[in-house]
Amino acid sequence: MNDKEKIRVMLVDDHAVVRSGLADFLLAYEDLELAGEASSGEDAVLICGKVKPDVVLMDLVMEGMDGAEATRAIRKACPDIQVIALTSYKDEDLVQRAIQAGAIGYLLKNIS
């Protein structure tokens, strides 16, 4: 598979171990490419503008700009970038905020 066909994914999570685990997972698939990483919502917005991923996996609970705010800013600046919310909380309001901000869906981070 050539690089033009790969889905470029950016990871946003304030925990380095989570980003590392997700990066390892992505690298196991030849049709996915790690486009970038960010540890905060603010950094996610800046880096997204530079690396232009196809998809962002966005943690929702972070210090400063949270995932919903970052999602809104990314979708406003780059409407072609799709955002999928990541959360370890089963909080319907949290997920709803992300969807309203422009996320196309969400994934629960299961630890078990």
Structure in words:
With 112 residues, the protein is of the alpha/beta class. It has one domain: Rossmann fold (3-Layer(aba) Sandwich). Helices cover 39% and strands 25% of the residues. The protein has four helices and five strands, in the order E-H-E-H-E-H-E-H-E. It has a five-stranded parallel sheet with strand order 2-1-3-4-5, with helices on both faces. Strand 1, helix 1 and strand 2 form a beta-alpha-beta unit. Helix 2 runs parallel beside helix 3. The longest helix has 12 residues. The N and C termini lie far apart (33 Å). The model has no long low-confidence stretch (mean pLDDT 92).
CATH homologous superfamily caption: Response regulator
Spatial gap, N to C terminus: 33 Å
Shape: globular
The fraction of residues assigned to DSSP E strands is 25-35%
Explain the layout of strands and helices:
Elements: E1 7-12, H1 16-27, E2 32-38, H2 41-51, E3 55-59, H3 67-77, E4 82-87, H4 92-101, E5 105-108
Summarize the structure.
The chain is an alpha/beta fold.
Q: Main attributes?
A:
globular; five-stranded parallel sheet; 25% strand; 4 helices; 39% helix; 112 residues; Rossmann fold; alpha/beta
